[in-house]
Amino acid sequence: MTRIKVHTKAPTFFRDCRPFILAVFVAILLLYALWSFTETAWTNLSVSAIFSNATTDHCTSQPQSLNRTHDPPEPTFYDDPELCYTLDKPIDNWDDKRKSWLKLHPSFADNVQDRILLLTGSQPSPCKSPIGDHLLLRGFKNKADYCRIHGYDIFYSNACFDPKLCNVWAKVAVIRASMVAHPEAEWIWWMDSDAIITDMDFKIPLQRYKEHNLVVPGWPNLVYEKKSWVAVNTGSFLMRNCEWSLEFLDVWASMSPRSPDYKYWSETLMSTLSDKVIPGADEQSSLVYLLLREKKKWGDMIYLENQYYLHGYWVEIVGRLNNIIKKYLDTEAKVPVLRRRVAEVVSESLDGVWERYLRDAGGFGNSGWRRPFITHFTGCQPCTGKHDPAYKGNACWVAMEKSLNFADNQVLRRYGFMHPDLGNGSSVFPVPFDFPADEKEELV
Amino acid sequence: MTRIKVHTKAPTFFRDCRPFILAVFVAILLLYALWSFTETAWTNLSVSAIFSNATTDHCTSQPQSLNRTHDPPEPTFYDDPELCYTLDKPIDNWDDKRKSWLKLHPSFADNVQDRILLLTGSQPSPCKSPIGDHLLLRGFKNKADYCRIHGYDIFYSNACFDPKLCNVWAKVAVIRASMVAHPEAEWIWWMDSDAIITDMDFKIPLQRYKEHNLVVPGWPNLVYEKKSWVAVNTGSFLMRNCEWSLEFLDVWASMSPRSPDYKYWSETLMSTLSDKVIPGADEQSSLVYLLLREKKKWGDMIYLENQYYLHGYWVEIVGRLNNIIKKYLDTEAKVPVLRRRVAEVVSESLDGVWERYLRDAGGFGNSGWRRPFITHFTGCQPCTGKHDPAYKGNACWVAMEKSLNFADNQVLRRYGFMHPDLGNGSSVFPVPFDFPADEKEELV
């Protein structure tokens, strides 16, 4: 009976509950359909979300190339009749003006903090020394090579921007004009024509100068204790393109021949600095004076760099070049990746590897074998030819030729050639594949 | 009755067909759910599609900046021991090798078709002429200024890459080495040291040369009818960095002093060319010969450019410079936007505006007043000083000084200065705001 009961109950239940089951089934389908619809909507929404994030990230991580053809009509500081390129009028709020310009030219805002403009130059007329202009030509090529390798701009000035500053002070007027002409450049790097870059791979550690506006080779004890006019060297220095620098240039130039107080400054510098013998207020002595007397006002923003040869005295350096070549070739002979041939535009890719092996090079001082970044031929006067009598005979010209070829070998190598003899720039040899695995003695 | 029949039929029908209706309803829901599911899947699929297209387009429109620090370990042509920088061995499949390198260095692949490397140079030793090296220095500055303004790289060679090519042929060895050293450069632009860029704004119309590999100033009738050795000029020409060019360089160099057949070629050129008087196979006569005798093999890929001064003979040009200055200043006086001060890096932004006003300038020929792109001091020999006797006295040096200052004024102006007297590069004046609205007579 029970069995029958059960038997009879089942179909009854099935028959009675059919609408309920269908309802549940329908409900499930409705829920899934509804979910699918929301899912679709969500996915559609996420397309734009992912798109915008993706593209933003993508192009932030890969800064765009410079857009040289775009200059929007919006007014900039260039449209201000009061703003000039000369030292005659100060520029107010330069930082804001430069920032606004960069905002209107976004492709130049990318990586602006790493952008350097190298300035150098010489007198407008031919040199008196028969070898002078040839050395100027090679000195310019040396700097142009460095700038091409690292992607920096270079401007050679052979005009005198201020009739009263046609001497060691000329750089001040050129720097001032160039800051206005190059709002895209964060740093202006001045190099005298007799300074030569002798490490083509070295990159200026700009990160180190985040909190500074003027980076000049210098030694604090020589400034503040010895009060020496050679406590700094203005043959190679970096200046940030900012308001502070413009103000500093004005104050600096106020000690120059363009100032009515020039005579006063000449006397003051002679009496203040312990070892100044050449009369007249020169730009280097004036900088030492400002550090001494206006330290509070300027000192904190001036970085005295002596951890590498931002300026290196040639007499300390040239005698060590052969040993430096030998050490670098030894290292390359040991480390295949360092002698791998690469395109010149990616030479920087080896910097990291080199650093590992240069740890043993003993710093940048006299003792070490690291290439000096800059070799400065102070006192050689290649253009006039009237070198310091302390340098006997052809010492200056022989040393300059050697240093220029030392640097040129680092460049020529990327074109497949090298000078076998640093004393003679005329001859080159084709660099064999995998050099200097076997042939390193060729250059030593 | 009928009504009742109808009445009774209806519920019967409803009751009997309920499963069918439910089935249809369920089917519709299933279809919608299924469609939603497919739709979701399709949308998900399209995320990646849209993403990849979007980012590609996005970054094509804003090419990334050059990545100089990245050189992947994957082997390139640089790792092939057989590949050399000299003319001694041909390079097979250079186009593929260069393409593979660009693939490994994507930041250099962007806009590669517009990338130019300007090559120039002079002898390794000082010039014999007392003014020679000074003119070389200014000639290099002139080219470096142009390259900085337009974002091109420049390499100055004062080494002799092939001991047998230390003369007019030197350029062939330098071009060959530079193509290997610069796979990122689509075009190599050779300029002799005595050629000066006298229109700093003009951009080489690379689009015009899409189908060509060598662009040289030339006149078909002088080549094919007159068979003249001056039918082309090799003082300024463009060569595409490609397989065709490497093959052409090999054939070209096979007529040079490095070839055992040099004597044969010297005689052949003298007898073939109608007006060649200087003995010896020079690179210019050899190019004319290849056009004449191997037109089928090379001619189609060589563009003879005579629509602008890719090379301009100085004697035809220098006398017209004052009038050209006057016409440009007149135009600027009329059109405020042309005298607006701009940052040097965006000088190109005015090119389009200038073109509108230069339509009346009457082309690039003698008659017109458009700035000549390049003024070539053929026959002046600034380095030796031994100019063509046809040029009396100081004619060459006076003309070079004038042309250099003419060009320099276009550059200096972006730094706020100009030379008042083209005959004297030593003096400059600060350019007044809105110049030359009123002061245009100053320069005429």
From TrEMBL, chains A, B:
Domain of life: Eukaryota
Major localisation: Golgi
UniProt keywords, alphabetically: Glycosyltransferase, Golgi apparatus, Membrane, Signal-anchor, Transferase, Transmembrane, Transmembrane helix
Subcellular location as annotated: Golgi apparatus membrane
Molecular function GO labels: galactosyltransferase activity
Pfam short name (any one): Glyco_transf_34
Record membrane topology: Single-pass type II membrane protein
Membrane-traversing stretches: 20-38
Family assignment from sequence similarity: Belongs to the glycosyltransferase 34 family.
Protein name: Galactomannan galactosyltransferase 1-like
Taxonomy of the source species: Eukaryota, Viridiplantae, Streptophyta, Embryophyta, Tracheophyta
